[in-house]
């Protein structure tokens, strides 16, 4: 009885700490577009939302790196991950540099902004190495502190730039400068556990599988936000950016559940998957119901009084995020089970969204919003089917 009570208390404390760190991450992340809505005009607000979406997508390999490292550490305590962490960060930053001309032309972004994003991306991605080690070792209190450090360094500079009226480019410059503090601080935080002698390191294939799955998840969940920048006028894209804050809130609010469950999923614990899905589904239902009753207030808090009229769309934005939160749990379960192509259903859903939004439905706010929630439902169905077929057994 004493052991059980102690274990529950430890899990509760760990969950609370990670939840607080996740709330800080989400809060600071939401504060950036909220401040942008008050400091920038509609055109620059849409550009800021696009920058944040690109940064989120480009930084997703960091999440994939964390997942891969955590799974490997859960199975092989002390496994090395340093070299693969730096390599992943370098590849992501280099890709941003190569894509700078394309992003600048298609999305009407200053070249300096996309180049700064390359440096910013590298600093954020490499953090996944140390966070994954802490998560796989189930050092959740230190993991929570690491998540908080990442959140403050990732968004603090952007927030300061907006508050000081530095504009789009100046704010991204400030954000990049502060983000460079991430690697040394996290390396110091995770220093107490050294790699075990003789333990085999994580392979590039493991990281690529996790990165591909996580990237696909984030691409499909952010694709609508990028599409509206391309397809809609500046005013409409700015309003959609405010609504997307609700989507991301419903997506990331139950993040703590997946964080705590992942080491158990790596060990093939089917019950952990069922509990995680139940908790995430319950959280999503509460958020959708709340947005239905207070949609106008949600839009006022997210973007100001100018966007209150869009409150009737709040439940749709929240439902989109809630569906993707379930997808995220299933994607993690597939990666932990050693699935070969866990990202395939998500890429298929992304292609479907692009085709429908570009060439089938009218280029309106409402049409793209309903395309987004429909895509989320399709992605959930396809991922659930793949998970059921593949089971939840860890790879050998």
Helices and strands in order:
Elements: H1 2-39, H2 42-58, H3 60-75, H4 82-98, H5 100-107, H6 111-136, H7 140-163, H8 167-179, H9 182-189, H10 204-231, H11 234-252, H12 255-266, H13 270-293, H14 295-303, H15 314-336, H16 344-359, H17 365-390
How helical, in percent, are the residues? Answer: over 70%
**DSSP strand (E) fraction?**
under 5%
Helix count, DSSP H or I runs of 4 or more residues? 17
Radius of gyration: 20 Å
Q: Report the order of strands and helices.
A: HHHHHHHHHHHHHHHHH
Structural class: mainly alpha
Mean pLDDT: 86
Our count of domains comes out at 2
The count of strands amounts to 0
Stretches where pLDDT falls below 50 for ≥5 residues? 392-396
Shape: globular
Multimeric status of the protein = single chain
- Distance separating the two termini: 34 Å
Can you summarize the main beta sheet?
Answer: none
